[in-house]
From TrEMBL:
Residues 140-333 form the D-glutamate N-acetyltransferase-like C-terminal domain. InterPro entries: DgcN-like, DgcN-like_C, DgcN-like_N, P-loop_NTPase. Coiled coil: none annotated. This is DUF1611 domain-containing protein. The lineage of its organism: Bacteria, Pseudomonadati, Pseudomonadota, Alphaproteobacteria, Sphingomonadales. It comes from Sphingomonas lycopersici.
Amino acid sequence: MSLDNNNNATELPSPYLLFVGDVVEPGFAKTAFGLRDWAADKCIGEYACDPAAVRTGLPQLSPADAAARGAKAMVIAVANRGGVIPPHWRPALIEALAAGLDLIAGMHSRLTDVPGLAQAAQDHGRRLFDVRTPPAGLPIATGRKRSGKRLLTVGTDCALGKKYTALALADAFAARGVAVDFRASGQTGIMIAGGGIPMDSIVSDFEAGAAESLSPDAAPDHWDVIEGQGSLLHPAYAAVSLGLLHGSQPDVFVVCHEPGRAHLLGVPDYGVPTVEEIVDLTIALGRRTNPAIRCAGFAYNTAALDADAAAALMARDAERLGLPVADPIRRGAAFDQLVASCLGVP
């Protein structure tokens, strides 16, 4: 069973048990952290098949314990390289089915393709949900300028806050009385929002067209805040970033960055580009479909810094860059300035 762009969140059985497998790199567990932080009411606990796996801070539960506490499904809450479901996870997945939980995945690998899993689901009367399935009939992009306003989050790397920034900005817009929709472009965002298009599962020729479909014509004062993917300078994932940029035609973009990150995720031979490089490249490429594109500021992931060090760094960089720099999780006055810059208001 697949979740398409027209499904809503109630169709995914919850609450969830979050399966983190044996992933030790926090960047590859972004689905777990995203659901914990933005859908906490749906998360009962976590389950790992390796004691060294990443932890979310949720209660560590077996599938049987989670089911006893009311869980309805186990979510494969990681996004490893290639989106694969390795064979050694199979026993844990079958354990969850046997405990009475449905399975939800946002991987490139399909649950139904895991040997024996479909049969186990049938035997136990459970369901398999694959979220990372694009809707049928996606068009090739036209490049036509659409009505409404759009904001896209872009990044110096993967897994450093593009989704969090988009969600935080959408919430802030709504709090100001602005008509706004968060547009999910990845599996975690889709699980949070209940709809969207998994951009990294689209055939390349239809990538920009999918982005056009994700943010259709809207009222002149309506904003679509679009979750970014990858990075324009990542050697593996730049293609999805460019298709999303061209198709979303953003009026405004916000550059997401993690200070102190030295190497691109998954490719340690490549250093992280500067925020200035991403601004210049995004404007140069984004002008192709929206000549009026502008950078509104920067969203920093300062989780590794204490509050004083984070504030000092962001203040210095805001002065140097001439635009607001804020951490969307810490919020505060700097974030208010970023929101105002996005909206183009004093």
